[in-house]
Amino acid sequence: MDRLEQRERARMRARGVRVVKLAGQDRYLARSRTYEPGSYFELWVSPWGHVRCTCPGFTHRGLCKHAEALRARLRQRVG
User: Fold this and answer.
1) Residue 40 lies in a domain
2) Which domain holds residue 60?
3) Are 63 and 10 in contact (CB under 8 A)?
4) Which residues pair with 31 in a beta bridge?
5) How far is Cα 55 from Cα 72, in angstroms, rounded to an integer?
């Protein structure tokens, strides 16, 4: 699967992901449903606008459904 296909797959899977902003912080949480059900992954946005996630998928591929869900949320705010 090439990078474009991976990103599109992550976007499709992001539709069911709920991202919660931590009060008073520039960090977000997304619940794990498959890796460790009930646990959370931490997300944050760099000063340059790059979204990062602590999940294994992001660590391995540099993209994941959690990061795509946060990107979509941030785009809605701007647009």
Assistant:
1) yes
2) 3-74
3) yes
4) 40
5) 18
Of 4, 33, 32, 35, the closest CA to residue 43 belongs to 32
Any domain includes 8? yes
pLDDT tens profile 18-71: 999 999 888 999 998 877 778 999 999 998 989 999 999 999 999 999 999 999
- Total domain count for the chain? 1
Task: Round to whole Å and give the CA distance between 66 and 79.
Answer: 20
DSSP state of 39: -
What does pTM read for this prediction?
0.85
Q: CA–CA separation, 4 vs 18, rounded Å?
A: 23
Residue 79 lies in a domain: no
6 vs 49: CA distance, rounded Å: 20
